[in-house]
Model the fold of this input.
Amino acid sequence: MKDGKKPFSLTKFAEVLCVLLLAAMTLITFINVLSRYVFHSSISASEEITTNLFVMLSLVGAALAAQKRQHLGLNLLPDKLSPKGKLIHRIYEGIAGMAFMGYLSWYGLKRVMQQASTHQISTSLSIPVWIYGCMCLLGFVVLFAVFAEIAIEAARGLKAMAGEEETRGGDEP
Done:
């Protein structure tokens, strides 16, 4: 850290993005409710906007949860494994997550291209729906990167563990 500045953090960016998305959803919904009771008229686009912001919030939140190991999971097997086994399991989790997010990214890209080629527009705002599709695609790509990071960190831990075992093994008669 030069000059007391912290380096860019993808995690911090994702956390701030989650706060901003939630604040925007809350504000839009509050304004819509206020409009309904004060002016007896609803803002038709509010549901479309909040629904799509919620999808983006869910994907960014899932990436944060996976990165911090706070996602839902069944720990019956990993809890019973040795430290080396836990790292191997973590590598498997990362690779499986990358495979699934890779598939969703590929399918999402096909879907976005199909939406763009057919010029589909949203109901309330009349904007191209591929814009919303790109938000999902971006979320899948971020999740892919997080799972790649999980696998790489676990592989580094496994390599370090093997190096420690090799060093200890060389000291013993």
